[in-house]
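Protein Record: Sequence and Backbone Structure Tokens
======================================================
Tokens: labelled as protein backbone structure tokens, with as many entries as the chain has residues.
Task: work out the structure tokens from the sequence, keeping to the layout shown below.
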Amino acid sequence: MRKPPSWYIDTLNARGGLAFASWRANDLERGNTLSDRPVFYFAPPTFTPTPIASPATALGGERHGFQLGLLDQQGEVPFGTLSEITEFVKRVYLGSGRSDGTDGGGIIPLPPTEPLEPSPEIGEEFERQPALNVTDFVSLVRETPRGASQSFDWLPKNKGEDQRFGLTISAILRGAEAALAEMLARLPAAKGGAFDRWHVAASRLAAILIQFDLIEAIDRNIDHRTRAACENFAQAMDANFGISAHPAELRAYPFYCIAMMICGIYPGYRWPDYPVWTHSLTSVGEPLEDLACLPISAKHAGAIGAPDPSAASIADLFCSVLASPQRIYNMPDIEDIFWFGAARVVGCDPPSISSYSPRRRIDLVHDSRLRRLTIAARLWVRKELPSRCFSPTVEKLIEDNPSAP
């Protein structure tokens, strides 16, 4: 049945973040010739609607890999405003996997090797409290009718702000634990190309953890599974590569010792005799490049619908949650890795570290730096997560990525 005119997507390339939309009746699927009407073009990075002169340009996109229209079981999906289309195109673009173009090109670091044993599960012994009000988002989605949208604030003021701030800090630290535990589980058994790729990725992760002062907080209240992962890694390094950590330091500061081993500064000294490690540690890429080097577990890869779970990275999970935050509702521990990714993004230019000692840094600078990092991450997430929610049908289209190859 023909419905009153509305805004409809004419052609769409989700992977490239490109779309054409126009004000018309919902008759595109019947192959009708499009009459003259307002037509707008959307593209990264701003996705600002740009008017174009001819509707033929929009339909011409189909010959270049664009899908024709956006349909659900009831026909073409209507939008109330151009800003809603902007939000939709941006979100499907983010969820398409950090594409650098319509061909999906770009330099993506080779993934680390497959884990030799099941990835450790971090922090499952307690009831998890979310830092994001994702339950409210999902509830609002269910209330939104087809063809409409509703505004949403992810971090509303005066709604348990202090509690959610503390929960965000905890989520960042758990995400860091999960990232390192997954990386340690993938240590190759011998040197070679696989080890070289692993070492590049692991060194980037260690640099992030040290630069952002995450190690001390984790070592204070380390999860027993993470402690076991660190001990297993130290044993493997000793058995396979002849590199050992001092048992006392490994027990007292497991996260710290492992990070130093990865960076090539092997903790064989007693700290009272040698209290400061002198070294320059830096991650070498832009934020998403760093996150693209860090693997996620097969469970998390499956939760985000990764086409190749063995190659899925934190960058994939991070972009997937930005596009479809309701994924957290289905698997809450995804939020931890998402917050760790957000911390890396906002902490892209931390102070250079020329000397590092856990005993000297814990009381002087750690808490204030972690708080500043958390504040910046929360502000960034509030701005970058979806500002509007759509009906369940449209949200499902975003999650499934309507024109991904």
